[in-house]
Amino acid sequence: xxxxxxxxxxxxxxxxxxxxxxxxxxxxxxxxxxxxxxxxxxxxxxxxxxxxxxxxxxxxxxxxxxxxxxxxxxxxxxxxxxxxxxxxxxxxxxxxxxxxxxxxxxxxxxxxxxxxxxxxxxxxxxxxxxxxxxxxxxxxxxxxxxxxxxxxxxxxxxxxxxxxxxxxxxxxxxxxxxxx
Amino acid sequence: xxxxxxxxxxxxxxxxxxxxxxxxxxxxxxxxxxxxxxxxxxxxxxxxxxxxxxxxxxxxxxxxxxxxxxxxxxxxxxxxxxxxxxxxxxxxxxxxxxxxxxxxxxxxxxxxxxxxxxxxxxxxxxxxxxxxxxxxxxxxxxxxxxxxxxxxxxxxxxxxxxxxxxxxxxxxxxxxxxxxxxxxxxxxxxxxxxxxxxxxxxxxxxxxxxxxxxxxxxxxxxxxxxxxxxxxxxxxxxxxxxxxxxxxxxxxxxxxx
Lengths: 180, 257
Hints:
The structure holds two protein chains of two kinds.
Chain A: H1 3-14, H2 21-27, H3 33-49, E1 54-59, E2 62-67, H4 72-77, H5 89-101, E3 104-105, H6 106-113, H7 118-126, E4 130-135, E5 143-147, H8 149-154
Chain B: H1 2-5, H2 36-47, H3 56-69, H4 76-93, H5 108-135, H6 158-173, H7 187-201, E1 203-205, H8 206-209, H9 216-232, E2 235-238, E3 247-250
Antiparallel strand pairs in B: 1-3, 2-3
């Protein structure tokens, strides 16, 4: 491996968070962005082709070394690490709406879900998956929510655009057919 | 009638919701719904009816039946949707007169909401799958949640300990009593001073108003005076950049700026 690949590997190994490409580039100022990109490719291939227990994943706007899924159970059984708790269906629904409609206020989320979401918003905020991103212009200047970088990280998304566009979903919203 | 009482217990909208669902009596395998729209959507799916042409009377009846069987009929959100369904049913029953172009299907709004909700459920499936994928892989570093650091064992000789005790005792032997002299602020005086200065010079700087060796009460008086005058609209305060000297400018509403 060339020194740049080894340097990036060391940095990725040391970090608990995905490292954005810009930060990886800052590690080696003399390397061009193309060189950094190709070094990351080399490292990923190295893990994939040579058969390693870890892999290099592009997540949350950065790169991260993760263990392979097939060893998860063994690791968990040995209590070396624990999987984060799954979100409830209600929390996921709320999160999905916010991911698509952000910035969005509580009332609009409730309109779509048909149930009150106050406590769910609070717990999502405590888990740092969403945050207040502003205030609406309307009456009472209600808080507007948006997703955080941690949301991308926990759902293995490179960026928000990786979610299918609304019109790409199987049931795209189409105008209701004309009444007979 | 018999098939109506049958509740599809295999419905898979799993996941605990915060709904105030309090089952009374003996209910086996209560399916969890994420909300009234979820229940309605699963009904429509089970009845295999067209979402764009919902047989509203039938579906409303089924909905009421289910919330009763599922003991959801004390949850406000479910009742609200039930009421909405009944209202649409009533609207559908009303005779329509004359031109049909102006007639708006009372179901349209419900259909729109249902489609929107269904679309969101699709996103939930995607998020769930991706979340599971990510959860099944560990990142390298483990972040301790409580941030507790293990303290190094205490290394201290008896002499050092006694010196420390002695030091503490000596410090606390004679408590120092502070005499606090109350100094009243002279805001009125400061206001008069600023007014006279501004009247002849039109602008000034903070540094010129407060002497270098000014006492705290003088500084505070001046600060309050300036704020008061700015509030009255007699002058304008500006600071070109952080920590720069504050510039004071005459700003009489009577004159042109």
